[in-house]
Amino acid sequence: MSCLVCGSGNQAERSAEMVIHFSGRENLDTPGAWVFPKLLVCLDCGFSHFTLQKTELAGVAKDTREDKFSALEASAGDVPLSGGSASQVGS
């Protein structure tokens, strides 16, 4: 599989652990969801991506309401990447 940003085949899979939090003051009391995905990292440009297992996705989704998701979705295109913005990936 080639990197989605730079097209390189120089990638490595690594184990990761992270906590996913929802942004905003209204979510200060919402606990984060611990996830342990396999992370695919491009060793040339640094672009990384992962996929959550169904049980981890359920932990993230259970605290997601429609108004929270639409705010997160609206800001997703603002994430800068080394080769462009998130909205350009996969285009």
Task: Return the structural class.
Answer: alpha+beta
Task: Give the averaged pLDDT, no decimals.
Answer: 77
- In the sheet with the most strands, the strands line up as 1-4-5
What is the total number of structural domains?
1
Shape field:
elongated
Distance between the termini: 16 Å
Q: In DSSP terms, counting alpha (H) and pi (I) runs of 4 or more, how many helices? A: 2
Number of beta-strand segments: 7
**Strand content bin:** 25-35%
Question: Can you tell me the residue ranges where pLDDT is under 50 for at least 5 consecutive residues?
Answer: 83-91
Strand and helix order: EEEEEHHEE
What portion of residues is helical?
A: 10-25%
Largest sheet: 3 strands, antiparallel
Task: Please tell me about this protein's structure.
This protein has helices at residues 54-61, 66-75; strands spanning 11-15, 18-20, 33-35, 38-42, 48-50, 80-81, 84-85. The protein has 91 residues and is α+β, with helices and mostly antiparallel strands. The protein starts with 10 loop residues before the first strand and ends in a 6-residue tail after the last strand. The protein has two helices and seven strands. The strands form three sheets. Strands 1-4-5 form a three-stranded antiparallel sheet, with no helix packed on it. It has a two-stranded antiparallel sheet with strand order 2-3. It has one domain (11-82). The model is unreliable at 83-91 (pLDDT under 50).
